[in-house]
Amino acid sequence: FRSTRQLARWSEAGPSRRQRRGMAPYGAKARSWQVKDVADFISTTGLKQYAGAFEGNNIDGKRFMKLNSNQLPQMGIQQFDHLKKIWRKIKTIQEVCKKHEQEMGDPEAQLNLHAARIQSLARGKISRQRVEEIRRERRDRELEVIRDQELKEEALSLVQNEGLAADEAMEEAALKIQQRARGMSDRKRVREMRERGELPGQGRLV
């Protein structure tokens, strides 16, 4: 295994020197790391007191590549500054590894990338459906408010002009609104039939 000092030196030097020597950047093979390799990497972050937590949780390369920031507190990394620093280092290595695998045409990496894209598309579809549901619900609420206002105005007119009691006026107003709605629906149907040339006698000379 690589020593902690060697890992720290590579981490500080950055990938450019290694790339100039024709070597893969540090972290490119992170998915194949053993548990000890992961612990050694954590030691290079300057917070080596947490290396044991990674060993204790048996975090090897495959698990390391699936880590997210929400899991770190469960491993005992509670202090915000420490959590933020370690997660930033982990995220950097994850990105280096994924990029290298994609460049090398790694089948597993390509499969993971394809799966991630499918999940992203699925989330997008669900989001669009939810947006449409919200719009439809809002339209329904607005129509309900309009109908309620129309009913009140019609009932008030009946009370003022015809002297009806409030309850009677509300019932009469509801009937009138229903009749108007049916009339509008009938007129719309007639207009559509006329446009399609389906009215009896339409098109005949008188």
Automatic annotation (TrEMBL):
Residues 33-96 form the SAM domain. Transmembrane segments: none annotated. Residues 1-27, 179-206 are annotated as: Disordered. Pfam families: IQ (PF00612), SAM_2 (PF07647). Gene3D superfamilies: 1.20.5.190, Transcription Factor, Ets-1. InterPro entries: IQ_motif_EF-hand-BS (IPR000048), SAM (IPR001660), SAM/pointed_sf (IPR013761). Residues 183-198 have a biased composition (Basic and acidic residues). This is SAM domain-containing protein. It comes from Hemiselmis tepida.
